[in-house]
């Protein structure tokens, strides 16, 4: 299901390009460029909302109640203070009212969400998506899940904690999608096998280390990863997560920001692995199989 790509047959003999064809191609290119910009901007708007969810989750509030306000002076923000990326640039990273610094988390989350949404849009067919309701539904599902993963990434990075409400929401969304998109029992079971394998692996680490190496939140996140990615993409995600985690840990130790006994949240690495597997999992599996079978 995931790692889906559009493929178009190419003929060896190409028709000679006419002026009408050139005009059509130029119009199509302009439409595609407009669509790419729209998807990116839409992602930044979603990222702005995710920042509000992250902040209010930290404070135990609801993201859907009340207007946005400055975390320092509590002044309500107007629309001109909430334009993704642009407001941060124009205000030079300061609150308009109290002039205290705005965290770099806000523009980084907005930018990252826009970029990730754009990559997912490319990966799932780009402009061709709009010729199929089923593909639009899949894109909306993946964007929704990715938004929840970005919240977990930032929250775990800041607090060394994966919020249950978010990971349960992502798991519930994946379950609902599989029920609505049920194709055959074999395909449905493969996702459950991936979920049980991934969570079982992390549960064994959690129990074996008595919670010193992995937290229970990582076990729950691993269950979701299997349910979301399926088999064998979940293996790609876990492999990438451990490679990035090991490399990041070595860099932190080398720069003396951490030592061998320091805690490092593993959730962000799992989410990075999930995104890599989502976008390029099938390609990586095919590359590896060709490598070992040659």
Task: Describe, in short, the structure shown.
With 294 residues, the protein is an all-alpha fold. The protein has helices at 19-58, 86-90, 105-123, 133-159, 164-180, 185-209, 216-229, 233-254, 267-293.
Structure, explained:
This protein starts with 18 loop residues before the first helix and ends with a helix. It has 294 residues and is mostly helical. It is built from 9 helices and no strands. Helix 6 runs antiparallel to helix 7. The N terminus is likely disordered.
Features:
294 residues, mainly alpha, 9 helices, globular, disordered N terminus
For the terminal residues, how far apart are their CA atoms?
A: 27 Å
Which structural category fits the helices and strands?
mainly alpha
The chain-level mean pLDDT equals 83
Q: What's the shape? A: globular
Number of strands: 0
What Rg do the Cα atoms give?
A: 22 Å
Helix content: 55-70%
Task: Give the count of helical stretches.
Answer: 9
Secondary-structure element order, N to C: HHHHHHHHH
Q: Specify the biggest β-sheet.
A: none
Q: Spans of 5+ residues with little confidence (pLDDT < 50)?
A: 1-18
- Strand fraction band? under 5%
């Amino acid at each position: 299901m995931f790692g889906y790509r559009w493929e178009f047959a190419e003929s060896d003999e190409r028709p000679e390009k006419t002026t009408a064809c050139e005009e059509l191609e130029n119009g199509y290119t302009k439409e595609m460029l407009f669509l790419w910009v729209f998807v990116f901007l839409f992602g930044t708007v979603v990222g702005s909302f995710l920042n509000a969810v992250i902040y209010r989750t930290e404070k135990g509030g609801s993201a859907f109640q009340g207007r946005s306000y400055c975390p320092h002076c509590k002044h309500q923000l107007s629309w001109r203070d909430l334009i993704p990326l642009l407001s941060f640039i124009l205000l030079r990273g300061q609150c308009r009212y109290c002039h205290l610094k705005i965290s770099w988390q806000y523009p980084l989350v907005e930018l990252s969400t826009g970029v990730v949404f754009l990559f997912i849009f490319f990966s799932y067919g780009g402009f061709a998506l709009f010729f199929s309701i089923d593909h639009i539904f899949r894109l909306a599902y993946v964007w929704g899940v990715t938004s929840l993963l970005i919240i977990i990434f930032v929250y775990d990075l800041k607090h060394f904690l994966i919020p249950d409400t978010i990971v349960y929401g992502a798991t519930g969304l994946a379950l609902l999608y599989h029920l609505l998109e049920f194709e055959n029992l074999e395909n449905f079971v493969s996702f459950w096998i991936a979920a049980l394998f991934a969570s079982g692996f992390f549960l064994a680490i959690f129990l074996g280390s008595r919670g010193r190496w992995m937290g229970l939140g990582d076990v729950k996140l691993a269950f979701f990863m299997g349910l979301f990615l399926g088999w064998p993409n979940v293996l790609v995600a876990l492999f990438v997560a451990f490679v990035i985690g090991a490399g990041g840990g070595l860099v932190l130790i080398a720069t003396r920001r951490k030592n061998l006994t320091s805690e490092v949240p593993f959730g962000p690495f799992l989410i990075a692995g999930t995104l890599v597997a989502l976008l390029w999992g099938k390609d990586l599996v095919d590359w590896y199989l060709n490598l070992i079978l040659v």
